[in-house]
Amino acid sequence: MPARRPSVAALLATLRPTCAAPRLVHDGEGADPMVLAEGDTCHLYTTNAGLENVPHFTAPALDGWTHRGDALPALGAWAVGGHTWAPAVSRTAAGYLLYYSAREGATGRHAIGLARGAAPGGPFTDDAPAPFLTDPDGAIDAEVFVEDDGARYLLWKTDGNSFGRPAALWLQPLAPDGLSTTGPATRLLSSGRAWEGGVVESPVLRKRDGLYYLFYSLGDYTGTAYNVGVAVAAALTGPYIKGLGPLLATGRTGLRGPGGQSLFHWQGRDWLVFHSFDPVYAYRAVWTAELRWRSAPRLGWH
């Protein structure tokens, strides 16, 4: 008789990822970092800093970054400057795409824009008269997930906590070229745990051993309450079961408010890249931590 399929909650207990010791890789302003590994070069993008909308750095490894300038020299006509957050760069048949969050001039709320470029460092151009994606509560923190069959999806957050309403994370199908959405969004997760402080944001998704792991930031990003959580599901659209506490938290190996994370695959391994405050909380530096995965047990089902 075949073995009974275990519950997703039981799988979470046995397959939950852990992190190796975090490592500081860029001791300078680098909030909401994202890394794109292309061949022998790693590309780092961050939230706006100084006069740059999307600072861009390159390195042959995960440290020793060289500043390459602004990957997005001009915002879309719909956006106002100074609030360009959480960039996500993706390679498609249409070239390189940059999804970014910016404040929409017409509404005063954040929306997600889409810019195109011919190379990983751009320069990226957003020539659309309107944002790529909007929501009445604001839309931020775009991230791309590609399924095993090549289907593309956009993860993003409704910014309800900025207006006294719940925050939520969403998944929306994209066209193969990434230039348009092809269906409605599905809510994956909402804030609710006491240790989340009413905030879930910065979603990133990884499929492993047939399960879907949703990493997210939680809490107030301005201090030590900001941490990284993880939830797991047996299907892409959920339901997602949250862990019992943060995956990365303040106090671990010098971390202070870790979050704004992204996930990338490099040299055969999975890595989280995230920010953490410096000792006097003047800026958010860039850290990495290798993800450690427990092997899926032989449960007699698939």
What overall form do the CA principal axes indicate? Answer: globular
CATH superfamily: Glycosyl hydrolase domain, family 43
**What's the total helix number?**
1
State the domain count: 1
What order do the helices and strands follow? HEEEEEEEEEEEEEEEEEEEE
What share of residues are in beta strands?
over 45%
Poorly predicted runs of 5 or more residues: 296-302
How far the N terminus sits from the C terminus, by CA atoms, comes to 15 Å
CATH architectural name: 5 Propeller
CATH level 1 name: Mainly Beta
Largest sheet: 5 strands, antiparallel
* Average predicted local confidence, pLDDT: 91
Textual characterization of the structure:
The protein is mainly β and 302 residues long. The protein has a single domain, classed as 5 Propeller (Tachylectin-2, Chain A). 3% of the residues lie in helices and 45% in strands. The protein has 1 helix and 20 strands. It has one helix at 8-15, and strands spanning 18-19, 23-26, 34-38, 41-45, 55-59, 66-70, 79-92, 95-104, 110-117, 139-146, 152-158, 168-174, 186-190, 200-208, 211-218, 227-233, 241-242, 259-266, 269-277, 284-292. The strands form 5 sheets. Strands 1, 2, 18, 19 and 20 form a 5-stranded antiparallel β-sheet that branches. A 4-stranded antiparallel β-sheet has the order 3-4-5-6, with no helix packed on it. It has a 4-stranded antiparallel β-sheet with strand order 10-11-12-13, with no helix packed on it. It starts with 7 loop residues before the first helix and ends in a 10-residue tail after the last strand.
